[in-house]
Amino acid sequence: MARAVLRVVEAGPHCSVQDGGRAGLMRFGVPASGAMDRVALALANRAAGNPAGAAAVEVSLGGLVLEVEEGRLSLAIAGGGFVVQAGALRCGSWSVVTLTEGERLSVRRGPWGAWCVLAPAGRLVVPEWLGSAATHALSGLGGGAVAAGRRLVVEEARVLPARDLPCPVWARSRDEVAVVIGPQERFFASGQIDRLLGDAFRLTDAYDRMGVRLRGPSLAPEGALGIPSEPVLRGAVQVAGDGVATVLLADHQTTGGYPKIATLAGAELDGFVQLRPHDTVEFRAVTPEGAAGMARVRAAALARMRMT
């Protein structure tokens, strides 16, 4: 059975092994984690001939360099518009490349996007925790950080034809994102809701897999700091007592007591995470039914895409 071994030569912060996430355990206080860009994970895995939620390597803006120590294999790369050097081939992400023993793969930040996914054509052999290889960054549980010196083993390694992959427009970063107002809008004056929907916000450097803090108009809640802690969702826009908003992301805590002024529509989350620190974003309101309709349209479009 074919086997390949990749050595991590260089890795930026937040590079890790991720999969489709640890579903169904938040009620026990276990974050779901999983890929920041779930569409990129699914499309890269499909292009590599793997199940959509299979374990893969997630790369941050800090980049990644791998070297093949043993074997030969192909990798599918999807996500932000990164710059890729695979052996002698220079290309962009949204491609399938093949490496042989001694060759290196370099992934560096390109013109847009904050995260990309490398899916090997084969089975990435990594630790699992509670049935998933998704890495929870704070604890390190799951498949683990991808750091210099680590070796990644791929069993059942396959070689695929080199090719470009289609990058859907809706998978790119966007400067306007749909949100559903609430669930704690009652703690915010009408003027605060107007500011959320009428002004631009800037992503700050306080950005990791748990969430990203926004810089913009103050959204200070009124009398909300004593509310009971309750479940929180990926995409929730929670506001601290100082009026600063934070969008919760893949590794978010399972409960929290800050009021949530809005929640990003699920279909918009993968595009939102491709924004970089200092990029600006504006929010527009949709109804819960509208957000559900967006999710259905996006799921249908994803199902129609041919990646193999």
TrEMBL record:
Signal peptide: none annotated. GO terms for molecular function: hydrolase activity. The keyword ATP-binding applies. InterPro entries: CT_A_B (IPR003778), Cyclophilin-like_dom_sf (IPR029000), PxpC (IPR052708). Pfam families: CT_A_B. Keywords: ATP-binding, Hydrolase, Nucleotide-binding. This is Allophanate hydrolase.
